[in-house]
Design goal:
mainly beta, eight-stranded antiparallel β-sheet, 4 helices, 38 strands
Length: 488
């Protein structure tokens, strides 16, 4: 056999032996029956003599990450935690290495691995996403240092903001990723919760939560229900101070504020009619743009005028009678209504004239009293203390119903306290929550009933004029309404 063939054969045997040995001793003498797959990073150059750090291997599963530092001999080492226990530093004295860097990995809770040498000391820095338990120990035959890092973490805090108002934070890390949520526990005997419009009327547009909280002198606030970005109207069954601010055709869940000041969570189905000349005519919308052939009710919560064009007819109703009939952009009386009609629907109002009796009737269903307010959104998340998501029954859009996202929710606890929750998402510190996961979190903190509110970039919490969470847009989004906390 010539020299080239001899060298090739020897190299093939060496490679075969290395692969076999690596498979057999990936975790050394068995500490556990489980042997997760391990990725190895080989040195770029040959050992330079003495005791060597030969290799760093990474393995593990969803519960644990294992780092193995392969040595050519036994050596003393020390380790410690820094940066609020999010950095593990291991020093091995009397060791050299030909490795240029640690393996590039983001496995589990590991944020980064950094390898450095200082004289005859080799240092490995393990940067962690969250402070989790880690075990560092050595094994022989072959010699190696093993770092076992737990991939699960859960931490929570709850601090007093005021008598009857607690502020909390929840952080979790597991196989799904990192998740962060913020909460307020509100005693309704000492604080009121009200839904407000950013500038007092629907047509005046949207505003940032921090501005709304400050302008209203509220102690805290979260974003509220759904709204339309382009045409400036609310998407949901909402009644404020006895006046309908917006509606949808579907039965939707929301927070009920009873006329006696108590709170509940239930569903509302809007119905509204105008009875005129013996006919009951149903509304297609409330405080919304008037579409083709539509019949829309406007009240003082919309603004001073309807803003409609001249291609329709509008009936100004006050004190139970038609006060005026206009083509469009009617002035809305503070104590009255405007019924705006377009296209073929105008036929329902043939013969109606100024002075005719006109009675407006509105209802949110049997569960909502005539003097109760309703802060609607949906879907339901929790009922009777267990997770019960009703996305399909409430016809919630797929982009809201499915997947993880930033979320906002409101719950009622068994002691009557109100739980306000905002979960961050779409960011490195928080993956967001599905509706089921949001329901689970609400149950964890004691909610027996809970409802979902607007999410995504709208999800936000402000306490004492400070933004508590991190909105996913990177800054505050203007919103259509807010749930504010006021001290009684």
């Amino acid at each position: 056999m010539n020299l080239k063939k001899m060298l090739a054969a020897a190299l093939a045997v060496a490679v075969s032996i290395n692969i076999t040995v690596f498979a057999d001793v990936a975790y050394g003498a068995a500490q556990s029956s489980a042997k997760p797959a391990v990725a190895a990073t080989k040195p770029e150059t040959k050992p330079i003599g003495g005791t060597e750090l030969k290799n760093i291997r990474i393995g593990g599963d969803g519960n644990q990450t294992r780092i193995v530092m392969d040595l050519s001999g036994a050596k003393k080492y020390n380790y410690g935690f820094e940066n609020n226990n999010t950095r593990l530093v291991i020093n091995i004295d009397g060791v050299s290495t030909a490795m240029k860097a640690a393996p590039d990995t983001k496995r589990g809770v590991i944020k980064d691995l950094i390898l450095a040498t200082y004289g005859d000391t080799v240092q490995l820095i393990v940067d962690l996403k969250v402070p989790v338990p880690a075990k560092v120990y050595s094994l022989k035959n072959p010699d190696r240092i093993v770092i076992d890092i737990t991939n699960k973490y859960e931490a929570e805090s709850l601090n007093k903001v005021d008598d009857g108002l607690l502020q909390g934070k929840y952080v979790r890390f597991d196989s799904r990723g990192m998740f962060t949520a913020y909460m307020l526990d509100v005693d309704p005997t000492k604080f009121d919760i009200k839904m407000v419009l950013p500038w007092g009327t629907v047509s005046s547009g949207w505003g940032k939560l921090s501005t709304v909280v400050e302008n209203c002198n509220a102690v805290a606030g979260i974003n509220g229900g759904y709204f339309d970005w382009s045409d400036k109207f609310l998407v949901g069954n909402i009644r404020l101070n006895g006046v309908t601010a917006g509606m949808v055709a579907e039965n939707r869940t929301g927070l009920i504020k009873r006329s006696d000041g108590s709170y509940d969570i239930g569903s509302a189905q809007y119905s509204g009619t105008v009875e005129i000349n013996g006919k009951g005519i149903s509304f297609w919308g409330v405080n919304a743009p008037r579409g083709k052939d539509a019949i829309v009710l406007y009240n003082g919560l919309y603004g001073s005028r309807t803003g409609t064009n001249e291609f329709g007819k509008e009936y100004v109703i006050r004190r139970g009678r038609v006060q005026a009939i206009n083509q469009g952009n009617s002035e809305i009386p503070p104590d009255g209504f405007v019924v705006s009609v377009h296209g073929q629907s105008q036929a329902y109002f043939n013969g109606v004239k100024v002075g005719d009796a006109a009675i407006i009737t509105e209802s949110l269903g049997d569960g909502i009293g005539a003097k109760d307010d309703f802060y609607g959104a949906g879907p339901q998340l929790v009922a009777n203390g267990v997770v019960s998501v009703t996305s399909q029954a409430e016809h919630i859009a797929n982009d809201i119903a499915n997947g993880r996202a930033p979320r906002t929710a409101v719950g009622i606890k068994s002691d009557g306290h109100i739980l306000l929750m905002v979960a961050d998402g779409r960011q490195s510190h928080s993956i967001g929550a599905s509706l089921v996961e949001m329901g689970q979190l609400m149950v964890k903190y004691g909610a027996v009933k809970a409802v979902n509110y607007d999410g995504g970039g709208s999800s936000e919490m402000v306490v004492n004029n400070r933004i508590v969470n991190r909105p996913s847009d990177g800054n505050e989004r203007s919103i259509g309404n807010a749930l504010l906390v006021f001290k009684k």
